[in-house]
Amino acid sequence: MTQKPKSDKPVRLRPRRPCPVCGSPSQQKYHPFCSARCADIDLHRWLGGQYAIPAVDVPDFADAGESNDGRDET
Ligand SMILES: [Zn+2]
Q1: Cα separation of 26 and 6, whole Å?
Q2: From ligand 1's centre to the CA of 53, what distance in Å?
Q3: What's the N-to-C CA distance of the chain in angstroms?
């Protein structure tokens, strides 16, 4: 069995996508952005716009001293 090297198709590692921030061709180093600056801009967008963490209500421990008459402490 002899396998022929396929030379009809160039092997693409990743499809080129434009930078989501400015639309320039993205760099592999800053994928999917074109530069560290655009990555930073995108990060700030997230932090500024959609940074929403649901507030967790801490249970109130005021009821800790509940009247428990069933104690048999001497
Ligand atoms: Zn960019």
Answers
A1: 28
A2: 28
A3: 90
Strand, coil or helix: 70: coil
pTM of the model: 0.45
The CA 71 to ligand 1 mean position distance, Å, reads 68
Sign of CA dihedral 24, 28, 29, 30: positive
Per-residue pLDDT 10s for the chain (74 aa) are 666 666 677 776 656 679 999 999 999 899 999 999 999 999 888 887 655 556 777 777 766 566 667 677 66
SS3 assignment, position 17: coil
Distance separating alpha carbons of residues 43 and 38, to the nearest angstrom: 8
Q: How far is the CA of 17 from the centre of ligand 1 (A)?
A: 11
